[in-house]
UniProtKB/TrEMBL annotation:
PROSITE patterns in the record: ABC_TM1 (PS50928)
Pfam short name (any one): BPD_transp_1
Protein name: Amino acid ABC transporter permease
GO terms (BP aspect): amino acid transport
């Protein structure tokens, strides 16, 4: 039972922390993608293309085995958190950029005509409207991230999937064990979807 609880709590913690990190990093990358400075837009585009087009498992293995080689040593949990957050940040950035681009360009032009700076326009005009339009895309990313945390078990983090593998070695009941794990993931995904719908209605 203690192994089940440890795996569940690690999965929940990894999901919440990684999504929070992905939101912060993704917001920064999204800003880079839309600023009127070609060099910065290029930096943002390179980040998205590099992180999005290499599988998460490859990033996890690279971080777990590569970081110690350059003198960076962290617990496996935090190494997995870093890799997952930076990976998902690329998808968050694109969702945010799409939300910003969906706001009529005329509103930004009107704000600048009134004397607002780019930062003021983004903060007071563009982002509040874009926020309503990115709730569902971000919820989908959060659900995908929840499922992706199972890959952390491959590199040694004791998440729900890793715990299930260990329990199955003792019980030899894969159908029962992994059905239970699947239901846990289903409940988490349903909770995220429900929360997104509630938030969407409040922002409408």
């Amino acid at each position: 039972m203690s192994l089940v609880l440890e795996g569940f709590l690690n999965t929940v913690a990894l999901t919440l922390l990684s999504f929070a990190g992905a939101l912060l990093a993704g917001l920064l990358v999204a800003v880079l993608r839309i600023v009127p400075v070609p060099l910065l837009r290029g930096v943002g585009a390179v980040y998205v293309e590099v992180w999005r087009n290499i599988p998460l498992l490859a990033w996890l293995v690279l971080f777990v085995f590569g970081l110690p080689e350059v003198g960076v040593k962290m617990p496996l949990f935090w190494t997995a958190f870093t890799a997952i957050a930076l990976y998902e940040a690329a998808f968050v950035a694109e969702a945010l950029r799409s939300g910003v681009n969906s706001v009529a360009a005329g509103q930004g032009e009107a704000a600048r005509a009134l004397g607002l700076s780019f930062r003021q326009t983004l903060r007071h005009v563009i982002l509040p409207q874009a926020a309503r339009r990115v709730v569902q895309p971000l919820a989908n990313i959060a659900i995908a991230l929840t499922m992706a945390t199972a890959l952390a078990g491959v590199v040694g983090v004791v998440d729900m999937t890793r715990a299930a593998q260990r329990i199955n070695l003792e019980l030899a009941q894969p159908l029962l064990v992994f059905t239970g794990v699947g239901l846990c993931y289903l409940v988490m995904a349903a909770g995220i979807g429900f929360g997104a719908r509630v938030l969407e209605r409040r922002l409408a």
